[in-house]
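quick one before i forget lol
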Amino acid sequence: MDLLKPRTVPLSEETILWFEFLLKPSLLTKHLNKANPDPSPTDLITQFLSIAPDGQNQTPDAAPPDPEGPHKSEGLKYNKKQLALKILALKVAAFMRWDLDKLESTLPVARQIQLLSDLCSITAGKMVTLPPSLVHNATLVGPDGSKHSLTFALTLYHRWVLRAQVLRAGAIKNVKPFTTHGPAITELVAFTLRDESSIAALEPITQLSIDFLNQVLLEPQTFRVLTYDSFVPLDSNSDLNQQRFDAAIAIKPCELRAQIHYDLLQYYLHVQKYDLARQNALLCKDNYAQWQREEIGRTSLPPAYCTINADTLQGYLLACGVTGEPDGLLQRLHESILNHYSDIVVILKEDNIRKEIPMTQRKLLELNIEGYNAIGSTDGNPIEQKELELAVVALNIIRYVMDGENILSCNVALQKYKNQQPKLIESLFQYANEQYDQFSLEQRGLLRQYFYNIIALYGGELGSAFESFVHSYSKVVSPQELKDFRAQRVKPETQLGGIALQSDWVTPDIKNSRVEIGQLERQLISCTSANAVRKLLVKIAGTNPSKPLFTINPSWTIPYPLEQLLIPLQRGFLQDFAYILIGKAREFTARKDYATAITLLTVLKNETQRPELSSNPLMAKLGKMVSWEGLLVQIQQVLEEWPRKPAEQQQLVRNCKQCLNATVGSAGNDVTPHAKLLEHCAALLLNFNEWNALLITNDKRYPGIELCSAITQAFFDIEKFKGTKKTNREAWEMVLPMFLNPPGSRQRQLPPDSPLVLLIAKLRDPLVISILLSLLTKLHNILRDESNLEMNAEYMFLWPSNVNNTSIYNIKLVTEALNLLLNQALKYYPNNIPWLKLKGDVEFVANNYEAAMRYYVTALISGTEYCTVHLQRPLFDDFLIRRMVKCSTNLGCFVQAAVLCQFFDETDYGLAFKSISEKVAGYSDAMDSYYSCIWDPTLLEFIVNWHYKKGEHKRRLQAISFLGQLELNANNNEEIKREAAAVRKNRFLRSLAKQYMC
């Protein structure tokens, strides 16, 4: 029942009618001073304003007739009833200290606007239309108004403009209704805060509000706050607006600035202007602290204006990166780097005491400065930059020494800066001397021992300079200690002199042909250019050697077809030159120096095309075979540098096709490429997806080429049938015999020259690898024949579902090939999710549960982009989760397994409850560390009861605290539940990554 509106029914004596507050203002004061007034202050404001309709937008002609006559004030267009009730509403707001937090949380937005509009109009003494002009505030004041009171009203309004937009954004994100004292108000608040049009109207004036508030901060006049006594209710004897604006109280400037900066801080955080937010956060913090200091010793009365909550302000400060603590040395280091290494020496010297910056960061700093100086930067004086580099190196050496480890880095630094060694050692003495008193006794001992080592190593070289260092910086090593140390050094018993001390030995000028030939042969073995080989061959040939020169080095080997071509040649320069260049090219290829190898072969090919050799038919064959050898080197380079594509990929593909076609119809004296080259060409075409070229090349003399052709046919089956059932038997029937286990055979590993092993080493394309993986996986599943140990891979539909007489096949060889291919694939594509899952399956089948979990978790981490996106299907499925649960259980991580049970489409409560209740001697995971990863309330309830039965009171309370989290409320909508689950899934995934991947 509404007790404020007059009723026709009889009322009790305790009932106060609204006009009684006008007749006897003390009733309002008495009511508001109650401990829990009912109705509440905001309910009173709502009722007063609802009885007195808003007259702001009414014209004089449209005002409702007043039986008591119009108000005589020319400024305000309210009748007496309206004005009286509005003054009462403002008195109640003043009693609440104009606390916008309370007004915004309980009043509908429409009533908030009406209250602020009435405040502006009454303080101005005439009707004010919101938003008012911000430039000419003085023109808004009427004859019955007050300038300082209007400034207060406008400040409150413009603060509200900023706060309303922030609150609306919070209301949209928060699905829960606002907590208010009446159902009607709750409904209106919830509706209005979500009304786009009501708040959108504030956006155009937002900048005007910000400008006004900044102008208020600069005003020199004292800011005055209207109080409860500032508003005088109307009585029957006066019809004028006689408000006591002089009853306003002045507040300290720091209180006003703290409140305004606080509101600006909230708004700038809302619009993501973090620089401005941080600036206002710092100003708010300083003014709030000053206000608190000035309020010490004051009466316990509540503040007149500022309503800042200290804890909330601290949260905003943390959000803006203002911790209140001095910046750490690592942060100061990063800022120094951004400011061109300003104060870097001070920071490093301080870190030598506090040891906050990791040595890796300090070493990177040293390398960055070195690189900065190496590129010849013109930003500063080169001499000063070099001195800065040496200073950083010296300070890093001191830190290394005091850490008591990695002393090798110190000696390396001294050798690295050998040209600046005196300056570096002087810097070491200087900085160690400056901070010597700040070091502990243990650190001082380490420093002294290190400097003794420097004296022993470099004291003699530096001479008098070293003496000056010791005298200038005597704290570390005193002159007397230096003298004693040198006196203690034992002189060597053996005195060397004369010829023994010479470092430049000269070979006697003795003519010995064998020595000269030996020197030439060593040069021939070590030289790297074809021109040097040519010159050395000519010199050595002049000595009439008894055997071919290519036999000098047994490591020079060439392919058998080339050897068969070169040996019949007449002994001479061309034979030696060709053999040596090909042998050296193979050596450089083995060292992965492909450019030098190709250069040598190109020179040899050009040699075979000289005009005087054109009549020799063997030269054409030699030139062709040398070209093929160069092609092999190019293919090996491409495979080694994968996934970088070659510069002339199309030409390389054409050469590979021509090489494969050279085997077709070869007869008579025609030369053919050797098998290794042909298999490399086929593998490269397979990696480049040149399917058509491989489909027409199916030479049974070369199993490697035949296998590539069979894989190509499998690809065409995938493209043609688009995943429908189509059994491919070409590759299947080729691979199957490789895993035969003949009776009596003890073969335990695949032969390294097997066509399959050779092909696996050359595979790079993901699609080709996936096809071969599916074949091996399907074969493994058939030979294993255990449904709960089956492995999954892509394209398994391609292959037959059974094998005749499985007992004659060796499943261990299949597993070896599968591991070999997976390791090769993950080397080039470490984040391929299907392959990671398959690798996990391989380890799972082998009972290597920890390794299986590592690969499963790696797959999930890669799929979520390192937990930056939510974990969703189809990245994981029930099959994968069940295997992860099995792994966790076998590893003794039972609570981990219970948490994983939530990942199923339907939580497996039976398995989860069993995992939690598992009784073992000791867990491998801590139960309470996973409470924050559980989003299923039923599971948490079971844990609470389980702890209760175990008498574990502390853990039970901890589980209850997680169960009481708002986002886990069963009444939440599906979106909130999904978000809560997604956050906890990623949190759990991070914990698994720390356990299994680090």
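fyi Residues 147-173 form the longest helix (27 residues).
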